[in-house]
Amino acid sequence: MRRNAPAKAHTKEGERGAALATVLVMVSVMSMLAITIVESARFGIQRTANQEQMDQSRWYLLGAEAYATSRINQYLSQADRNTLGLSDWFGQTLTLPLDQGAMQISVWDGDNCFNLNSLAEQSEDGPLVASEAGQARLTHLLEMQGILNARPLAVTLSDWIDTDTTPGMGGAEDDAYGGTTATYLPPNRLIADPSELRFIRGFDRSVIARLSSLVCVRPAAGPNTVSINTLRIDQAALLSVMVGRDLTLSAAERIIRDRPPGGWTSVEQFLSHPNLAILPLSDATKALFVLAPRWYVISIGVSYRDASETNVALLDTATGHGRIVRRVFGADPRRSLL
């Protein structure tokens, strides 16, 4: 019996060692689980905090948008609307402090750009048809930017918008994009965003880059009006395009430079400028010029705690009272909308 005692002692020591190893493994597993739970809770708390900051930033954006809209409506109610371009906030960046942050609001003229949807015309609820006048204006604009094949590009853009599927002279409809096997086809509707240009045949990066500062889209067919009291020198090409080829770029720049300090008080005064008075302008062309814009672009940036958010909105004042017709969260505040 005594000879077996050492073996039993060895067995008990082995059992204690196995139990200790089991406990250590269990402690390691529990530690790993605890770390995982703590990390998950920490990330969950962080996600909640981030979401709260983003939600608050979004509300600040909407509040700033409402504020800008109210200011625009205030100016719209004034009789002398040509002062819009001379106010202390229009075309400027207004910075407002927030608790743990700040917001910046910019409002600028949304009329002074070439509406890509002017390549089509529409009467009432009728179909979208190609606009010869729109094609001629875009052709002129493309040529002024030194872009080759200007006319085919203009017709192709019309084909992208108009309702029919018959290509215009030099244009492109379904077959040019691959027909039934194509990844996409002309939508035959108004353009929703200038980014669509990159899908249109012939509009490569070079063409888009040259046009980017001059074009926009508005949710309406037909030409955009030009707000003569907010037109900038770098937008002189737009004035030349609207008037026609008889008005050179240098002559258009001269007109803008000659604008009275208080702005033109009437469209007739603007049209009496020597560079315009000598031209045989039609009533339709004269109607393209206004003292105050119909469209406004509201750009807002908010920094709140560790979150930053932006918003660009398009305001339509056709009824005499501004209403938001499009809003893009996360858009570049420096980018002209639509």
Tell me the strand percentage band: 15-25%
Order of helices and strands: HEEEEEHHHEEHHHHHEEEE
Gross geometry = elongated
| Helical residues, percent | 25-40%
Structure explained in plain terms:
With about 350 residues, the protein is an alpha+beta fold. The chain is built from nine helices and eleven strands. It has helices spanning about 5-75, 130-145, 150-160, 205-210, 235-245, 250-255, 265-270, 275, 285; strands spanning about 95-100, 100-110, 115, 120, 130, 215, 225, 290, 295-305, 305-315, 325-330. The strands form four sheets. Strands 1-2-9-10-11 form a five-stranded antiparallel sheet, covered by helices on one side. The chain starts with a helix and ends in a 9-residue tail after the last strand.
Properties at a glance:
two-stranded parallel ribbon, alpha+beta, 338 residues, five-stranded antiparallel β-sheet
Indicate the topology.
Layout: H1 5-76, E1 93-98, E2 101-109, E3 114-115, E4 120-121, E5 129-130, H2 132-144, H3 150-161, H4 205-211, E6 215-216, E7 226-227, H5 236-243, H6 249-257, H7 267-271, H8 274-277, H9 283-286, E8 289-290, E9 295-304, E10 307-316, E11 323-329
Parallel strand pairs: 3-6, 7-8
Antiparallel strand pairs: 1-2, 2-9, 4-5, 9-10, 10-11
Helix pairs in contact: 2-3, 2-5, 5-6
